[in-house]
C-alpha cells in the first residue's frame, strides 16, 4: 500500500485529495484558498471532521509546506516519505502532451513554457509541481493534462478558419479542457450502457462553474466546445462562451477600456450567468431567482440552457447521431431542473427523461426505456483519474 496525493492548483487555490493506493480509498482531502491574499484559508477533511486554519499564505510553495505539515500534525501521516506519488492536474498541455507523463526537469520546464496558452493556470500548476518535487524528492511525480483527451480531435475540429500562419507559427487552434472529466464519465457511461467505449457515440456535458461539451466517437474526443482557451463554447458561470470577436474593439471604443486584457478578464470573470443575472454566477441562486419571478435570473437561465442545447445539436450532427448524452459536474450532477430543461427541448432527436429517475443523487441512466438517445448522470472524479495515472506510471 502507498499514499498518493492528487493536486489541482489554481491561481489562488490548491485543492488536494490523499489516496491509499491501489485500494483507491480517500484518506483525507482539502482546499487552500486565497493564496497570496490576506487571511488565506486551509481546510482539511479527515475522519469525518473538518479542520480549518486561517493565516497568510503568500505563495504555492508555502501552501504545499502548510498542507504537508497539516497532514503530519493531524496524524494523517507520520513521515512525508509515506507519500510515494503526487499527481498534478495541468490545464494546458498544448500539442506536446497526449497522455500523462512522469515529471522530469525538462517536463517541468515545458509545462512552464506552455503558460502562454493558460496564463492563469499553468504557472500555478508548475508552482505546485516544484514545491512537491522539492519536498518529496523520492516520490513519483506525474502531470495529468486537461487537454490530453482532446488531442485525438481531427484538424477539421481543431483548426480555426484564420490565416494558416496563425496555426503554423503561433499554434492557434482548439485545445479544449476538462479532458480528464470527459474521459472518465464517458468510460463510466459505457459501463452503464453495457458496451465497450469503442462501440459508442457519446456527448458528454460537464456543467459546473466552467462548462464544456465533448463529442466522443468510439472512446475518442472528436470535438469539444472549449477552444484555444476555456473562454469558448457555451455560456458558463462567469464566462461568455462563443462571442463575435468584433464586439471587442466596439466595446473598447464605447467604454474607453484601452487594455484588451481588461476586457478579456470581464469576459472570463464577469459574464455568463453573473453578467446576465447581474447578481450571481451560482446556478442555485439563478434557480431561486427564476422561481421568484426575477426576469434577469430567468433570462440568464434561458440563455444557459439554449447554448447547451445548441451544442448538443451540433454534436448530434458531428457524430451523425449519438447513443447517449451524459451529464456531470456541479450542475449536471445535482440539478434535475437544468437537465430537464435541456432535454425537453431535444425530444425531436429522441431524448426523453424519466422524471422518476431525474432526482437528487441520480447516478446512471435517467432516460425512459423508449428513448432513442439515452440520458445519463455520472458524478465526475478527476482526482481519481489522477491518482490512477500516478499508480500506472509508478510501475
Ligand atoms: P467547478 O467548475 O468550479 O469545479 P462545480 O463543478 O463544483 O464547479 O459546479 C459549481 C456549480 O454547481 C455552481 O453553479 C453551483 O450552483 C452548482 N450546483 C451545485 N449544487 C447544485 C444544485 N443542487 N442545484 C443546482 N446547481 C448546483
UniProtKB/TrEMBL annotation:
ATP binds at residues 15, 206-210, 282-284, 330-334. The active site is at residue 146. GO terms for molecular function: acetate kinase activity; ATP binding; magnesium ion binding. Its EC number is 2.7.2.1. The record marks 178, 239 as: Transition state stabilizer. Its cofactor is Mg(2+); Mn(2+). It holds the Pfam family Acetate_kinase. Pathway: Metabolic intermediate biosynthesis; acetyl-CoA biosynthesis; acetyl-CoA from acetate: step 1/2. It is found in: Cytoplasm. It catalyses: acetate + ATP = acetyl phosphate + ADP. Substrate binds at residue 89. CDD domains: ASKHA_NBD_AcK_PK. Keywords: ATP-binding, Cytoplasm, Kinase, Magnesium, Metal-binding, Nucleotide-binding, Transferase. It comes from the Bacteria. The keyword Transferase applies. One of its GO terms (biological process) is acetate metabolic process. Mg(2+) binds at residues 8, 382. Belongs to the acetokinase family. Homodimer. Catalyzes the formation of acetyl phosphate from acetate and ATP. Can also catalyze the reverse reaction. This is Acetate kinase. It comes from Pseudolactococcus insecticola.
